[in-house]
Amino acid sequence: MLLECSAxxxxxxxxxxxxxxxxxxxxxxxxxxxxxxxxxxxxSCKINRMVSDILKASDLDKLDSVAGHITRRQCAVLFYxxxxxxxxxxxxxxxxxxxxxxxxxxxxxxxxxxxxKVVAIDPHINTKDPEIVPAYEEGSSYDAFLSNVSRFELNxxxxxxxxxxxxxxxxxxxxxxxxxxxxxxxxxxxxxDLRLWEPLVNVGGVIILHDTKPGGPxxxxxxxxxxxxxxxxxxxxxxxxxxxxxxxxxxxx
Length: 253
Known about the structure:
Elements: H1 7-16, H2 35-54, H3 57-64, H4 72-84, E1 90-94, H5 100-112, E2 118-121, H6 142-151, E3 158-161, H7 165-171, E4 176-181, H8 187-197, E5 201-210, H9 219-230, E6 235-241, E7 244-249
Parallel strand pairs: 1-2, 1-4, 2-3, 4-5
Antiparallel strand pairs: 5-7, 6-7
């Protein structure tokens, strides 16, 4: 199981499947808290139930072997939306690093029987700028990305594009149903990614941003998110999970 929803529900699940692991994706909220918090909790419970029925603890253990900045909790959220978000439209990811988030979403496509692919856009550059690559390592991450995708036997569900997101956006002409932003963490770059790619997201589509924790080490991400998504009535915030924020697109510009 990927998060605990309530004591009563948790006890019922433990009696049914005692061998499954529990990860709290979202804290429990009493009924008197604001509706937005309660809605986030209910969504978290929904994610927990669906993902727990599909993924095994061994799947999560294997995901832990992939280097990256996505936690199990966040993997569960990405898996859920890749598995359930209806089409038409593609799944596009800005920033893939060594493929952990890509694998989470591609695995969902594989297990759901969908023939779609996760479009993983990343220049896989070598830089010591922590706002672009939070954890610097020597050399490109591209070879490790390809190796990890192959190790999980997900090549059929992944379309890697080794390029900057701005360059890809110039020729991109397909609609998007799920858009995950985890590229450069500079304010101007995050804002550019949102401005270039958001118009291609379907109404009803989902936009997810990583490293959005309030007061966290990447204030530029949160600033760009708040300015473009948070302040607009065209988007509804569905859930904020530590370093991950999920929006639903309600209308076009």
